[in-house]
Amino acid sequence: MNNEFYVPKRVMAIFAHPDDIEFGCVGTIARWVQAGAEAVYVLLTSGDVGIADTSLTRAEAAAIREAEQSVAGAVVGDKEVIYLREPDGALVNTLELRKKLVREIRRFRPEVLICGDPTVWFVSENYINHPDHRAAAAAALEAVFPAAGQPHLFEELAEEGLSAHKVRKVYINEFGGGGTFINISDVMDLKVAALHKHESQFKGWDPEPMIREWSTAAGKGKEMAYAESFRVITLESDEDWAKRTTEMA
Ligand SMILES: [Zn+2]
Questions:
Q1: Ligand 1: distance of its center to the CA of 130 in Å?
Q2: Ligand 1 centroid to 143 CA: how many Å?
């Protein structure tokens, strides 16, 4: 291990709802994009249940939230947001969903995949983790390994011109633990700006003090004013990765 800041070429973030990325890991994505990475977001649902306004249809709510997410992504310079439009509030990790995610992974061919932690139920004394967050995280992990890299699984995707792809590292976004801390001090204002784009979620409250508090807590004791935390799984060693990228060049 050295202290050099690792920058992947392509990053894919898979999360349940519009705003999950901004609450969780957009600072890290912003740093990578600034350093030259391409980032794509995959949103499993369009968050239509997350607007508690019964004068809106769910389709109208989904359109609002997708528009907010696309603007939030642009704040940090993401390349694209892909909306899979699975049922918000009722997300289930099915084989069908795994195949949809394998399709996106084989299409974009990320070096790093970012997702949530499917084991998290409790992170504080006043919140129970949303079941969609766990389902999305489990679906992402089960798509990335081993499925995406297995040519004989979902082989029908070859008809779409998509071949197997092995992701190098998975960054599992944690609530303060996980062992890998990314210093987001220089992009903290961007994180706040991106989060604020989800206007429908912040009627009557401002998430800025809370998100600064979380990011301060993650950086505590690590000489980081603000940080995001991850468990990092390395699926391909530095040596094997170097060999593969040389062969591809
Ligand atoms: Zn969420």
A1: 7
A2: 20
Centre of ligand 1 from the C-alpha of residue 136, in Å: 10
- Please give the average per-residue pLDDT across 141-163, as a whole number: 97
Q: How far is the CA of 166 from the centre of ligand 1 (A)?
A: 27
CA distance 135 to 65: 20
| Model confidence pLDDT, tens digit, residues 4-36 | 899 999 999 999 999 999 999 999 999 999 999
Span from the CA of 39 to the centroid of ligand 1 (angstroms): 19
Beta carbons of 173 and 117 less than 8 angstroms apart: yes
Angstrom distance (rounded) from CA 152 to CA 136: 24
Outline where the chain has alpha helix (H).
20-24, 26-34, 58-75, 95-108, 131-144, 188-196, 208-219, 238-248
Give percent above pLDDT 90 in the chain: 88
> Residue 147: pLDDT above 70?
yes
